[in-house]
Design goal:
The chain contains ten helices and 13 strands. It has 315 residues and is an alpha+beta fold. The strands form three sheets. It has a seven-stranded mixed β-sheet, sandwiched between helices. It is globular, with a radius of gyration of 33 Å. The termini are far apart.
Length: 315
């Protein structure tokens, strides 16, 4: 019986126009005829590579699908807000994420959890823009990107929360927030409990004509909370804001700015704890409602912010 013996596979080099190419061949010896035969090994290699490439396609598609899924997944970012205290925030920049957030917020409100609200924007008022609306509890803050999602957020549940007087919301100097929401988005903010009102209520620094000077959130945190962790985050954010006047319209938002926005919510709860006994709840809520109206209800030609508490807010 004729046998065929396979010799070692060798490489031969073929010279083509201007380039060198290596071709692998398998040399076999036919014992009956004594002849040598060559078989192109590259062909089988090419077939194997083709099969491997076809097998890679589903994996690539799966990776692309996973990337798309990540667009709808919110990550809870831990933020240090005290010596031994942390909280979390979630950045909400798609409609799918927002729909999930509204359900979570409605559940929190149903369970009587206190919430706080704050807006960020450029020249925050009817003359500027609202680019971020932040809503949260003591443990979790949602940073809702209005610039990326669009005005649909209001009709998808946010308007109901902001306008419902029965859903009480901690805020700090709500005047420009209320002005921007009403004149830019037709949202009439209600149910506000303004912590700035608590701060000025018992202060004796009364200025001429019966007006009282109001203080910034940073000043109040320094005075009543004295938490260096919160203050450092605010200082970092403020430094970025000083370098760019339209930073709240830039995307993607820097991590320092996301932390800054979160701290404006989380700091409110600490300030509220320090000042909550200064006024009765009903008097505070009525004063906050009047404070909300002082700016949005009047005609304005430009953003004329004032560092003075208007007359008639605290009665």
């Amino acid at each position: 019986m004729a046998t065929k013996r396979t010799l070692d596979t060798k490489s031969t080099e073929e010279q083509t126009t201007g380039e060198s190419k290596t071709k692998k061949v398998k040399i076999s010896l036919d014992s009956s005829t004594g002849s040598l035969t060559k078989e192109n090994v590259d062909k089988s290699d090419q077939s194997s590579k083709k099969v491997a490439k076809q097998n890679e396609i589903p994996c690539k598609n799966k990776e692309e699908k996973d990337d798309r899924m990540d667009d709808h997944t919110m990550t809870a970012i831990t933020i240090k807000i005290g010596m031994n205290e942390t909280s979390t925030y979630k950045y909400v920049d798609t409609k799918d994420k927002f729909i999930e957030v509204i359900k979570e917020l409605q559940e929190m409100i149903k369970n009587k959890q206190m919430i706080a609200v704050d807006c960020e924007g450029v020249d925050l008022s009817r003359f500027g823009s609202v680019t971020l609306i932040n809503i949260g509890t003591r443990d979790l803050v949602y940073l809702i990107d209005i610039l990326k999602i669009g005005n649909s957020v209001f009709d998808d549940g946010l308007r109901t929360i902001l306008e419902d007087s029965g859903i009480e919301k901690l805020m700090f100097d709500c005047r420009e927030d209320a002005d921007a929401l009403l004149h830019l988005h037709k949202v009439k903010l209600d149910g506000v409990l303004d912590v700035q009102i608590l701060e000025v209520s018992n202060r004796v620094h009364v200025y001429r004509n019966g007006y009282t000077k109001i203080r910034s959130l940073k000043h109040c945190l320094e005075e009543y909370v004295n938490d260096n962790t919160l203050l450092n985050i605010k200082l970092q954010g403020r430094s970025s804001m000083n370098m760019s006047s339209n930073i709240w319209e830039k995307r993607p938002l820097d991590e320092n700015m996301l932390k800054y926005a979160s701290v404006d919510i989380l700091g409110l709860f600490k300030l509220y704890n320090a000042l909550r006994t200064r006024m009765s709840h009903s008097v505070w809520k009525a004063a906050s409602s009047r404070y909300c109206d002082t700016t949005r209800s009047r005609n304005r030609m430009y953003r004329d912010g004032s560092g003075i508490l208007p007359k008639g807010v605290i009665i």
